Structures
1.
Amino acid sequence: MQVHRLQSTVHCFMFAIFNKEINSFFSSLTAYIVMAVFLTAVGLLIWVFPDTNVLNYGYADLGAFFNLTPFVLLFLIPAITMRSLAEEVRNGTIELLLTKPLSDWGLVVGKFLADWALVVLTLAPTLLYYYTVYQLGNPVGNIDTGAVFGSYIGLLLLGAVFVAVGLWASSLSDNQIVAFVLAVFVCFLLFAGIGAVARLDFWGEFAYPLSWISLDQQYADLGRGLIDSRNVVYLLSVTGLFLWFTQNRIAGRRQ
């Protein structure tokens, strides 16, 4: 009975962390700026700029959107996560949180879910792009729906990885700028850097396995419309790995 009561208390505090983070986003300008910047950036890329304009492309296709969005998220998500733990450390509130009946994992997961929820809410309005291109098709509906939703799943999982990396970076320093720069660097390395290195000539037969672990390859595989469990498990595993790094960092503060 006492164990059940303790678990309920831990879950309540984890939800309180989640709720605190969400309220913090929407009680300030953070959430609105993030959404506005993201939607404006991808909107200009998809509908205005001539080199990436869907209307100029001549086909009912959202390839440009899904190719460019990861690079926007690569900067936007670290901007969301950079304050998550760095601000707690700087203000000294991390010690207060660690005195609560809340596990390190509860703290990490609560903050992760809040940051990821903001990413999901930011991506949600872009479903309008799919509807628009769907209606513009000739005939109406002439769009690869499977590839579109596979790509959205890829974006959500990629966003989860970026959030986990951002939380880990935020746990390393009380300086938000340092956390932002480190998170951007690691996200870029995981997404594009590994794949670029794999394309160098000297890897030989090791080029394929090296390229496979690159996040852009995992994302591209999901964008083909066939949801392979290996891609999903890999992206979730990378997310879990960086959350574990963060949990270890927080556990070190208890000692």
Note: The chain has a mean pLDDT of 84.
2.
Amino acid sequence: MKSALKSVLLALAAAALPAAASAHPAIGDAAGFGHGFAHPISGLDHVLAMVMVGVFAFQLGGRATWLVPTTFVLVMSFGGALGAAGIDVPFVELGIALSVVVLGAIVALDVKAPLAAALGIVGLVAIFHGHAHGAEMPENAAGAAYAAGFMIATALLHGAGLALGYIIGRAGGRQGAFVARAAGGIAAISGVGILAGLI
């Protein structure tokens, strides 16, 4: 059990590591892509939510393993377009923080939601994350390159979550259930801290 928990903590740390390295995104021709790629990995709230989407998709299994992350990325791009166009979406920051709590709790409780409900949940929170990415696009950044950057970074974080789910699955039985609850619980508690302005 200790080695399984250690694997989870290492995976979460690896997923969060790019946030520390993203302080200097690319400039020049790559500015749009670099800024876009850096945005999702520059905040703990985005990182935790994206990783939990991947774990949630793994827990559901079947078609959900690719439909849940794909839906998130596509709906997020729509939210990004709204943000870039200056179209207001209320409670964006609150929605992002709540998404960490909700997704973490879903993973911790191993909620077996119907696929349509799972897609609805991730689609809803994706709008908030996407809007934040789009609204914070630098004025001199190329829109398409910026969008490609945050979409690819998000997909990679989803991939990290799927990998974490695989590690949890390898633990199996009670160990796997404990590790999943631990990972989801860590994310949910972090989300509460973000909500409270502590992180």
Note: The chain has eight helices and no strands.
3.
Amino acid sequence: MGKTKLTKTELKTQKNNLKRYKRYLPILNIKKQQLQREVEGVRIGLEKTAYEFNKFREEIIPWICLLGEDVGLYDLIILKEIETSVENIVGVDIPVFVKAHIDIKRYDLFIYPLWVDKAVSIISQMISLQAEESVLTERLRLLEQELNITSQRVNLFEKVKIPETKVAIRQISIFLGDQQAAAVGWARIAKNKIQGVI
């Protein structure tokens, strides 16, 4: 905090600042709580996605050795696009996973082994889950970044600005009170001198 001017104008400014800080602090606290809830929700979504992905991985294990055969499986499944929308959460634009557009090329059932149908289905679902996880991870990053900024602002108001402003108001009030008491004393002395002259 810099040197405070000990004037009535500065006192009014400091009181207005204190009023403004006290008005914004509850809003920032509400924003912080909403962001914390959203972050928790995204973390739960990530856990759910990881659980579903691991479920598909467990399903593949019995026939995973078949995936080693060179049948061109990876040429059949192509992730074309991850479709997202934007959601505004407490003033921050956050991506929302909509759908993973996966292109599955047509293939001849007589040429490819029987297990390819099941593999294409499971792998495309796993790719979709990985796409959803990447969007959720970005969502979490943005929300945590905004939560960090909001927490810093709350701490700034609670621990720095409001206490500094209260100290400044107290200092100015004491100084102005002393000035007023001194002025009254000088006025009495002047009055007594004037009455003594007459």
Note: Residues 115-197 form the longest helix (83 residues).
4.
Amino acid sequence: MNIKRIAELAGVSVATVSRVVNHPERVRDKTREHVLSVMEEYNFTPNWFARSLNLESSKTIALLIPSIETSYFQQIISGVETVAGNKGYAVLFGQTSNDPGREAEFVDMMVNRKVDGMIQVNSRLNGKETMASQNVELPRVHIGKNRIRANDTLCYVDIEEGARRMTQHLIELGYNTIMALFDEMNEDASEQINIGIHRALRDANQPISFSSVQAESSVRGGYLTIQRLIQNKYFPEAIVTASDLQAIGAMKAARDANINIPDDMALVSLTDSAVCSVLSPALTALELPSKKLGMAAARMLIDQIEDTLPYVDMPHDLILQPKLKIRESCGNTQDIYEWFD
């Protein structure tokens, strides 16, 4: 079944069927309803790609994201989907796995599929890896700090400030030896976390010993890292993990070695999730507004696509702030923080 056959069955021209699909307001009510009834009877759905060529719009946006396995990225996806759906846009996904080559392939693929715009999360590109995007002025928003083109819009959580506040909290609790577990696959976030931690260390009125180690952002990564520390008989007073998954693995390794958290070692995470508050002990963490981040990025992208705001052609940053959720794992003993969690 195609548009020509529908025209024959409805007794109208192909041009009329095309107008019913693409510009229904230009067709008389009676004719439009008749054509639509024939389309419904024969279960005919217009080819979206051909239709997008006619309308110069596909009503689709691309979302390129490193992973769909963590709560942080899942919430970004949820936020993008919420706004896109309300605006009548479909979302095409590409999981880049933090691989610049794979990301470049997805960019070319999405450009060739005529998407109206693109959101790139934690992009690893520098603008030279993909020829398609260089030749097309495609509206795009970056979630993260990597501005590929001069007029790209950025949207991100201030993880540097979050890391500073978390470290300051640990110092105020009296910890003098702090170790950070970075995400070995996310250099940009690790750099921001490191800067934030060192800001807090400089502001401290006492000498603080700080060290860091790269680890896989997973339960396994956290478990193996803490297990190695225990084998080397090195026990920092407090550990800061980049993700809640690392923290869960660290907690398991400590429990297996009869190390009590927080009495023997404090543990905090720079990513919060629903499970953090039900762990034993409950995990102190940074609540990242990741769903709001996805919603904001989608709104900004659709503003560019539809040219509805005067600033869309200007590069600008939207920065969201994380929230410190103080629970038991850091050694906190003030119930008021738990009451208002």
Note: The chain has a mean pLDDT of 88.
